[in-house]
Amino acid sequence: MTHLNSDHLRTFLAIQEAGSVTGGAERIGRSQSATSLQIRLLEEVIGQPLFRRHGRGVSLTVVGEKLHPVARNVIQSLDTTLSELRGGGLKGKLRIGMPDDHSRSELANIVSTFAALHPEVEMEVHCALGAGFGAALKSGALDLAVHEVPDPDDSDEILREDHLIWMCSRKHDASASEVLPVAVFDRDCWWRDLALSGLEEVGRRYHVIFTSESAVGVRAAVQAGIAAGLLSASEDVEGLRPLPEISTRYPTYLVLQKARGAKGPICEAMCEAIRKAFAI
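User: That's the sequence. What structure does it adopt?
Assistant: Structure tokens below.
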């Protein structure tokens, strides 16, 4: 009698969250071949493919989309039950800052999984532009923060390295304008400063026509074709392409930071969950 195997479901979730078989294998501590085998066995049970393969990784099929919420509920229920049966669950409070950009959904999954494993931990999650996280950590308003920085400090744990590049819509060539229309953040932050100073360095005339509190808003303006914007090079956003006239790539780092007084089992448990999710 065929049935869904929880280990296979856990592998399925790891691949979906990582966006590739290789990344999923790293998260669950298995070889790529063993990981591929588990997905093949799961697809044989279901009778349909769960992933579409493409050059940059994998994405869910319609069947995979249907399985995803079920798999998350099953795995979270199993992990929560195990934690409760073992006893000695964590109790307390944790305040964590998360960026309002392309990493938000991935980090939200980490937080929801942690909350399921440790239901007696009171979570305060602040989702905002990362520019204020450093000050919040110093003042003690946050215990942990995950956000992007241009130059990590020695105390920062680097979760992921990326680059920012100028992008525009494939359907609307913003660079054709004598004065480049640009979309940026609407307040002071290193990302906005980098965008504007970079244009000045290459001598490109520009006009800020769109501002947003988040990278999501900037990305939407670029997708709509009304402006060019400085976005993550790793994003596989449909309808966008690099701006041909500006080839500069700016390094950026997604880091995990802790407040000076952030110690104890709750803080360390969340840090370990984040490290495991990003396989560092």
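The longest helix spans residues 62-86.
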